[in-house]
Amino acid sequence: MKFTRILGTFLGLVFTCTYGYIFLSEHLSALGSVIGFLVGILFIIFGITGKDSVQWLFKKLTGSNFSNGI
Hints:
The longest helix has 24 residues, at 2-25. Helices cover 76% and strands 0% of the residues. It has three helices and no strands. It has helices spanning 2-25, 31-49, 53-62. The protein is mostly helical.
């Protein structure tokens, strides 16, 4: 569990830095950059708090989970 939280924090920082830079350098025009930036933030939240916000958001948007409980 600790490894996944560290990995989540690292991936969150990578997503946030990469897509944040793209987002700012493209003068706020790329929707994909906004989405990537927000996913990075969700990964950072997972790394810090342990709450799986990505799966919660996916379930809220689609009504299903990533996995079917296997």
